[in-house]
Amino acid sequence: MHEMSIAQSLIDILREEMAKHNAGTLRSVRLHIGQLSAIVPDSLSFCFEVMTSGTELEGAGLIMETIPLKGTCRDCKQTFEIQDYTFECPECASTEIDTIAGQDLSIVEMEVD
Amino acid sequence: MKISVVKNILEANDRIAQENRAIFDKKGLVVFNLMSSPGAGKTSLLEKTIDGLKDHLRMGVIEGDIQSSQDAERIARRGIPVVQINTGGACHLDGNMIRDTFEDFNFDDLDLLVVENVGNLVCPAEFQVGEDFKVMILSVTEGADKPSKYPLMFHESKVLLINKIDLLPYVDCDIQTIKKEALKINPHLTMFEISCKTGEGLDAWYSWLKEAVRSRGVDLKGK
Ligand SMILES: Nc1nc2c(ncn2[C@@H]2O[C@H](COP(=O)(O)OP(=O)(O)OP(=O)(O)O)[C@@H](O)[C@H]2O)c(=O)[nH]1
Ligand SMILES: [Mg+2]
Ligand SMILES: [Zn+2]
Ligand SMILES: [Zn+2]
């Protein structure tokens, strides 16, 4: 259940950003969840709900979008979607792949009042 | 009002991990994060490795468990410095927990520090602790479908130790399938087949580890 610690980090960042923007209520927050990250969106929602209930963040919607894995081949510079977690270039079969999307867990947008 | 943020949710932990790493680097200490599902053989591997390399490098261990100090006691019996962390429920170690152990070690007396993570094939791979590299163990009793079911850890690890090969005659597990699946996810993975019971395959792991420590500029005694 590391969604608990993820939810805590998320809440810390949200509080910080809200203070920065003098915001009183959080309506919603949009997250990008990389396909390779080991997060279960439902568990994260659940932890977030439990941990924010009774606080100024209560009731905020968590909008989560799963970001597919993408890589760039260092040899032929091709960019492609990584299928079945296979880190091999479909163009030239090189295994020198830089992951460019689908690994991170990030906040992209907040809606506040 | 909409605010665009773009922040990595794990950045607070990543930052602490980087600070840990800077301290390890300054002390010339090589650190690896040892991960596996519960019971795959992390502590057994450490017991063997301590014995196998005691004339070559000075090792310290951080033991992470949800509860109990049994693993730390097993390591302490070998006479090397060990600190037990009890996460009290958390399924992984994080940068902060590692930092809290620093006062219990004298890093000047160590060449290699191993962090035995909480037994779990999912979460530990998501949290850096300041390690130079990650090592994971998969035992043959867990089955060959694990790489594709738990891709993150296989992707993040530098070494995969396939343990309990002494049990191969009794389980339906094809090592070639494990290797093939793991290499798809991580084509640069270094793999060893080992048994912590019979000792088979461990010499190759010891050589690799010695070389990894040496290649980071640590002077080993006894070569
Ligand atoms: N047959 C066989 N048994 C092994 C081998 N390696 C470890 N074991 C046994 O597997 C069990 C678990 O080993 P541990 O080393 O405690 O595993 P661990 O990964 O440290 O376990 P946790 O810290 O609880 O997650 C013990 O009973 C070991 O004796 C092996 O290579 N072959
Ligand atoms: Mg153990
Ligand atoms: Zn977890
Ligand atoms: Zn290519």
Strand-helix topology:
The complex is a heterodimer of chains A (113) and B (223).
Chain A (H helix, E strand, L loop, with lengths): L2 H18 L5 E9 L6 H12 L8 E7 L2 E4 L5 E3 L15 E5 L3 E8 L1
Parallel strand pairs in A: 1-2
Antiparallel strand pairs in A: 1-6, 3-4, 3-5
Chain B lengths: L1 E7 L2 H16 L3 E6 L6 H12 L5 E7 L4 H7 L5 E5 L8 H5 L12 E5 L16 E7 L6 H4 L1 H6 L2 E5 L11 H11 L4 E4 L8 H13 L9
Parallel strand pairs in B: 2-5, 2-6, 3-4, 3-5, 6-7, 7-8
Helix pairs in contact in B: 2-8
The structure holds guanosine-5'-triphosphate, magnesium ion and zinc ion (2 copies).
The site of guanosine-5'-triphosphate (GTP) has 17 residues of chain B, from helix 2.
Describe this structure in words.
The complex is a heterodimer of chains A (113) and B (223). By secondary structure, chain A is α+β, with helices and mostly antiparallel strands. Chain A starts with a helix and ends with a strand. In chain A, the strands form two sheets. Chain A has a three-stranded mixed sheet, covered by helices on one side. The mean pLDDT of chain A is 95. In chain A, helix 1 packs across helix 2. Chain B contains eight helices and eight strands. Chain B has 223 residues and is of the alpha/beta class. Chains A and B meet through helix 1 and strand 6 of A and strand 1, helix 1 and helix 6 of B. The complex binds guanosine-5'-triphosphate, magnesium ion (MG) and zinc ion (2 copies). One zinc ion (ZN) binds next to loops of chain A. The site of magnesium ion has 4 residues of chain B, from helix 2.
